[in-house]
What does this fold into?
Amino acid sequence: MEISRNNLFIEYFGYIDGKLYCEDVSIQNVASKVGTPIYIYSKKAILDKINQYKEAFKDYDTLICYALKANSNLSLLKIIEEQGLGADIVSGGELYKAKKAGFPSNRIVYAGVGKTDYEIEFAIREGILSFNVESLMELEVIDQIAKKYDKKANISIRINPDVDPKTHPYISTGLKKSKFGIDIDQGLDAYRYAAKFDNLNIIGIHCHIGSQITDISVYKEAAEKTADLVFKLKKEGIELQYFDMGGGLGIRYRPEDNVPTPKDLADIIIPVVKQTGLKLIIEPGRSIIGEAGALIAKVIFLKDKGDKHFVIVDSGMNDLIRPSIYNAYHHIVSVKQNSEKMVADIVGPICETGDFLGLEREIDKVERGDFIAVLSAGAYGASMSSNYNVRPKAAEVLIDGEKFSIIKEREDYRHISLFEEEIL
Ligand SMILES: *Cc1c(COP(=O)(O)O)cnc(C)c1O
It folds into this structure.
């Protein structure tokens, strides 16, 4: 199979005899059988990424907690859990899915600025490894709820180190002006405050500065600032066990992108964390699943307006919102190669001008009924999708060697209006 494969910049995606394959499966075949739109994922790509992480951090006591918000498909979570990873969650729903997929509670960490009482209760009953606490009021409420259950809740404080991750402002989380975490200069006071509660068990410190980070030096700055606070805490007799550096490693969206590897990340943060003697936690999401996934759509119509060409496909911002809200670039290719090229806006069916997958793109010429693939769509694709314009959510397919299997059925109209029909 490898003989005539013409690989793309994303591993496990390439052309054989003019047809796009994911691993050893023809995407055209999958799309014809399952219908479109579909998200497809390469199992090998996921396992490779996990192994890169494991290998990079193997010499230091590290818990790798996959961030569910990147993609929380249960079959994918099961694959990730089976590799021994933990889970980084940000809601009760994600806790529910993490437990369903088999993640043990002592490998689950829970961040987020707005945890409800119900969600806190749920996590306390499950006995998770750590609440990553983002405000003083949250400390009080977790203590009260833990008391009710006669339990001690493990907590870490999410520190905001005021480091610019040099990424899109909507996914920068570690700056002073952002809603996340507690400012680092108030960190010492926050820990002193936390130490007063009988039903809190202080176990660590947490920071997560942003997503799609490609300048690795920002991790060093964040780690050093956080380590300084760990030393100050030690002097006060507040001893921690875990140093959680969050996630955020960037992935390749464009063929020319050069991004840091898990090894680069390990080389830069381990020396800093080592000085504190604490165990390390990292929370990669995008970098585990992003490049492993693609969104496949079908060309519905072609339309010309003067010099401007549109390729209208059956998938848009309802399935993949990143181009619309972050102006994000996703590389788009035709599933069938064509020596003739075309330049067009590749747009969805949604009634919004902001509904596009790519603007002014050169792709191999397509016709009505052909398929296109939107690459690097495994993270923040399906997990951010919606039913806008009353469109059923896409099916999801896992590819493993020569086999493929449906890991999420396509929604139908009944699913979308179920909770309204019940009331009629
Ligand atoms: C989103 C998030 C992550 C994962 O970020 P990626 O960029 O997907 O690696 C990790 N930790 C926390 C607290 C998050 O909110």
User: Anything to note?
Assistant: The first strand starts at residue 6 and ends at 7. The chain has twelve helices and 22 strands. The pocket of pyridoxal-5'-phosphate is lined by residues 67, 69-70, 88, 90, 111, 208, 211, 246-249, 283-287 (CB under 6 Å). The first helix runs from residue 27 to 34.
